Amino acid sequence: MCAQFGDSSDVCAMATAETATFSAERCLAMLDDYEQTAAGALRFVEGKRVLVAREPLAPHGPVPLLGSISAPLSLVFFADFTDRDSGRASAMATTIKNLYLGKVRLLFRQLPSPQNVQAHLAAEASLAAHAQGRFWEYYDVLFGNPQAQDRAALERYAEAAGLDLVRFREALDQHTFAADVDADLELGRKLGIRGAPALYVNGKPVRVPYGVDELARLVAEANP
Fold first, then answer.
1. Using CA atoms, how far apart are residues 112 and 117, in angstroms rounded to an integer?
2. Of 22, 35, 98, 135, which is most buried by a Cβ count within 10 Å?
3. CB 102 within 8 A of CB 69
4. End-to-end distance of the chain based on CA atoms, in angstroms?
5. How many CB atoms lie within 10 A of CB 78?
6. Cα 218 to Cα 75: distance, rounded to the nearest angstrom
7. How far apart are CA 216 and CA 57, in angstroms?
8. Cα–Cα distance, 205 to 117 (Å, whole number)
């Protein structure tokens, strides 16, 4: 890979670090299917580059952000509004808002399950709320009601969140933010994420915290 992509490339650096821990059998298997291995490594590096961008953009604008763009600690949360474990982890947003707003920035990335037909539309609806400056309010409502996310429910939540319903309905009718959701899904695939929820801290995957103490330890470890 270093010969193909260059000794100073991110792909070479990743391959050098990762393969040092692999067994000889695994390395031989990867060599037998080198083209697929190299393509996968390149996708992963491209995904990491997007993941750690200081001001990440989706097709229709900035990714939902809580906190300061200049905060030293960056958390990227991949989640599905219809997923129970994502819902359990979603409380980290409130904790960050209350305790770590100056130290941490939380970026939200969509990872709706393809097995749930409502999940993709709920993700689109959250971005329609984001376009009106109400993402985190809508986030709380969606995660608080994972069992009811059909079109009628999404509109009720939009009304309760004070959104312009005409704009909101138009966004869902036209699937304005479908491309943004799909871009996040593609990013998840490049990074090898197998399902929601997933969390990255300054570009590194970590265990998802489900409580205040777990998040506090995570922040402390990242800020020694």
1. 9
2. 135
3. no
4. 35
5. 24
6. 10
7. 28
8. 28
DSSP of 142-194: HHH-TT--SHHHHHHHHHHTT--HHHHHHHHHTTTTHHHHHHHHHHHHHHT--
Pairing of strands 73-79, 104-110: parallel
105 and 67 Cβ atoms separated by less than 8 Å: yes
pLDDT digits (tens, 9 = 90+) for 28-78: 655 666 566 555 555 666 767 778 777 788 888 899 999 988 888 999 999
Alpha carbon 189 to chain centroid distance? 11
* Full set of structural domains in the chain with CATH: 2-51 (no CATH), 57-222 (3.40.30.10)
Instruction: Write the DSSP symbol of residue 67.
Output: S
Residue 59 CB contacts under 8 Å (≥ 6 apart), including other chains: 179, 180, 183
- Cα dihedral 57, 60, 63, 68 in deg (nearest 10): 80
pTM here? Answer: 0.82
- CA gap 27, 20 in Å, rounded: 10
